[in-house]
Amino acid sequence: MDAATAGIAVVVGVCLLFVLVALLVVSKLFRKVEQGKALIVSKIRKVDVTFTGQVVLPVLHKAEVMDISVKTIEITRAGKEGLICKDNIRADIRITFFVKVSKTVEDVIRVAQAVGTARASDRDTLQELFHAKFSEALKTVGKQMDFTDLYTKREELRYRIIEVIGVDLNGYHLEDAAIDYLEQTPLNQLDPGNVLDAQGIRKITELTAVEHIRTNEAQRGEEKEITRQNVDAREAILELERRQTDAEIKQRREIETVRAREEAETARVVEEERLRAQSAFLQTEETLGVQRENQAREVAVAAKNRERVIAVESERIEKDRQLEVIARERETELTRIAAEKEVEAEKREIAEVIRERVAVDRTVAEQEESIKRLRAVEEAERERQAVIIAAEAEAQEKLVKDIKAAEAAEQSATHRAAEELTLAEARLKTADLDARAKLRAAEGIQAEAAAEGLAAVQVRDKEAEVIEKAGRAEAEATQARMRAEAEGARAKALAEAEAVGEKLRAEAAGLTEKAAAMAALDEASRGHEEYRLRLEAEKDVRLAGLEVQRQVAEAQATVLATGLESADINIVGGESVFLDRLVSSIALGKGVDGFVKNSETAQALAGPWLDGTASFTDDLSRILGSVSTADVQHLTVSALLMKLMQAGGENTGRFQELIAKAGELGLADTPLAALNGHARA
User: Fold this and answer.
1) Around Cβ 213, how many Cβ atoms within 10 Å?
2) Phi, psi of 90 (to 5 degrees)
3) To the nearest 10°, the Cα dihedral for 406, 411, 413, 416?
């Protein structure tokens, strides 16, 4: 039992020892493989491939590791070796292909047998193996697409290249392709002697010329739009400045009118107060004189002589007092006359300013005519430029047509030569000597046709150059002549503008800026011209009216002289006071009658009062119901018209004209009581 147990224990120990030794040997002989690599084990009768690991016996097996990870192959074509597209435009391209060994046992063994495990993933080896194939595929696909399609259809280009190459490459697998760089080959790197490059150069030149023309048109359109917007903005600014100036002038005029009216009202009140004070003083003097006379009479009872002396003295004192009163009244009248003279002088100055303004407006109109002439010259210049551009375009079109005809002739000759060459090759199968003779004849015909086409092209090029030179010479001559005419017209216009500017600075230096601003405003200039013509027409009408009034005044003077011959008139005042007042009253009445008769505004406002359909007293009482009788007695014509203007609504402008007309006739400060008394008389 013990022996059996010992034997079993020995057997178990030996087995365990054998297992441990086997495990140790296997661990030493087992080779693991990294990801992205494959282990190729060459055995006695077969080759095993594993992607994880395998036991490799030292003598019986040979183990090799192959890199099956993705590698890149870069294909670059640039310059004269650039890619030829369908439209014969050469492109510089750099494309990267991603290639790896297929992760299959058969493909790994195939690559190992064809290339070797060490060189299977070497970049130089891959470049040598696939460069020609990939380049050929790239050229094949590139020739099927236009140059612009290479940009817009890059995904299609990549798919086509992969489709032409295929994904199975004798054990290798094409994963993907990426286009790193794609640009047009510069013109200086193209060969003009190459037919394809020559056609590509022509295509590039035509396309770039068209794009340059479009770019130039866009730039010119941008400049025109910017210039138009600047002109519109400048016109708007000038219009706003004109409105601002008109508003400021109107405001200043209204302020001056109100100030003058208030000053006149103040002066009138002062004179009235002074008149009241003087009247009180005269009444006091009169009372004192009466008292003195009474006292003198009482004293004169005792002494006749003293009474005579006192009477004489009193008479002298009274005469002096009356002379002083008359002197004061004369001074007052002289002051009023002086004020009226100042008003007349101001009116004359205003008329002079209006005359100067009309002269400035005339000058502005002359400047506008000069500007119109300049515009006409500029318009002629633009038309001339348009004619020149049209002539150049026509010459260019003729040149392009001639070039196209020459190219067509050249292609026709080439096709005929190719046809003859094909026939000669066919006959070569029948008789070699006959084919050679016909081949030489075909070559002679080809050379002759090419010579004829080349001669035709050269002749047409010369004709196009002659036509172009003649057109350019004619256009340059026309341009020079029109430029000289434009320069002469511009110089003349500038000289006239300078002369007008000097005249304006000499006559009205203060109005130069306004005239310059108004030079571009045709509507304002026409308004001023119409205003000037209207003034002249009104002047003629008024002169005729004055002539009629003069004749009427002569007749009225005769009637007045006849009527006053037997009249009992008490003359109050010395010298010509009575006559002046009488004439002033008559002139005042005539002036009011003439104003009402000749003024459409006065007829429209006072028509109901004149024809009896309305009552002036009732209307005045209704408007001035809150005013006392004393205020109405002292109310002047200007104050009444101001109140009416404030409540006039649509007739405000007419009331302003009435105020101005009353100022011209000297009725602005006249009380309504005086007008009422005159009307009753």
Assistant:
1) 10
2) -90, 140
3) -160
Predicted confidence (pLDDT) at residue 572 exceeds the cutoff of 60: no
Q: 161, 137 in Cβ contact below 8 A?
A: yes
CB 179 within 8 A of CB 93: yes
- Provide the b/e sequence for 613-633 (b: ≥16 CB within 10 Å): eeeeeeebeeebeeeeeeebe
Measured CA to CA, the distance from residue 634 to residue 271 in angstroms comes to 12
How many Å apart are CA 265 and CA 545, to the nearest integer? 32
Confidence of residue 209 (pLDDT cuts 50, 70, 90): confident
* DSSP bridge pairs for 520: none
Bridge partners of 101, per DSSP, are 172
Record the tokens describing residue 144, joined without a space.
């099927």
Q: In the predicted model, is pLDDT for residue 457 greater than 50?
A: no
Query: What DSSP designation does 76 have?
Result: E
Q: Decide: residue 331, CB within 10 A, 0-12 exposed, 13-18 middle, 19+ buried.
A: exposed
Q: What does the pLDDT look like over 106-147, one tens digit per residue?
A: 888 888 888 888 788 788 888 888 888 888 888 888 888 888
* CA atoms of 445 and 439, how far apart (whole Å): 10
Q: Which residue has the tokens 């730039």?
A: 219
Distance of alpha carbon 652 from alpha carbon 472, whole angstroms: 69
**Nearest alpha-carbon partner for 182 in 85, 72, 60:** 85
pTM assigned to the model: 0.34
Tens-place pLDDT, residues 391-439: 666 766 666 666 666 566 666 656 665 666 666 566 656 656 555 655 5
**What amino acid is encoded at 128 in this protein?**
E
* 61 SS3 class: coil
Which tokens belong to 442? Answer: 């075909």
pLDDT tens profile 364-382: 777 777 777 777 777 777 7
Closest by Cα among 259, 147, 141 to 200: 147
Domains of the chain (ranges; CATH) run 37-190 (3.30.479.30), 572-681 (no CATH)
Terminal-to-terminal C-alpha distance of the chain? 183
Do 99 and 175 meet the contact criterion of CB atoms below 8 Å apart? yes
Q: How far is the CA of 327 from the CAs of 146, 322, 331, 573, in angstroms?
A: 116, 8, 6, 11
Q: How far apart are CA 579 and CA 322, in angstroms?
A: 20
